[in-house]
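Data availability (excerpt). The following record was deposited with the supplementary files.
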Amino acid sequence: MYAFSFERPATLADAARLAAAGGKPLAGGQTLLASMKLRLAAPEQLVDLGAVKELKGIRREGDKLVIGAMTRHADIASDAQVRAAIPGLADLASHIGDRQVRAMGTLGGSVANNDPAACYPAALLAIGATVHTTGRTIAADDFFQGMFATALEEGELITAVSFPIPQRAAYLKFKQPASRFALIGVCVAQTDAGVRVAVTGGGNGVFRHAGLEAALSRSFTPQAAAQVAIDAGELSGDLHASAAYRANLISVLTQRAVTKALG
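Predicted structure:
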């Protein structure tokens, strides 16, 4: 490793001040620390958010579930409020990475990193969540902007994510065996305003699928999802799976996610 300074603020105000001055926020460290070891990232100062209690916790606020940015995957998976209000979100968290990753990785870290095959972005986009930061609130539809790109500005920290409680929701992914990231992951959420479907692992970043949303808003059944043609031309192909294979996975996983949501 190379030389860098390390700060561990105890308050959100101090963390925000350090981040605004150029410090690199450290949440769960599941991506950043690995990148530093590989010399792909070289921050001069790390700002560890682990001691900031204001960034942790889960609470119900009316028809929304608010989860602090530093809440770990394992805590989301096991929390009684999450399991009761949005069981699909708890289930998603329970299948991220392995046990070690779930014990250290955080909601805010994953959302801010926006890996194109990460699970949480699909949940935020499908459920219609809102990202809260040190300066504003950002709708999920406006937050994710492509591969590892978000609407966050330099020095801006995610403080929490609020999830409106859907009528039902489910997430399924087909894992890449080594990384356990999604070759394709599909989150389906039925809300009062209609159905939202978000796909991760398909290419440049998480996206909503208008055709599946329209079909499932008319009829929330696996049969309706099966009738929607998935255009492979809009998807990526690589050594793990071709674009055509990913297109088939989107169809199959959507059908299974609807079945799971109907429960």
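Summary of structural features: The first strand starts at residue 5 and ends at 7.
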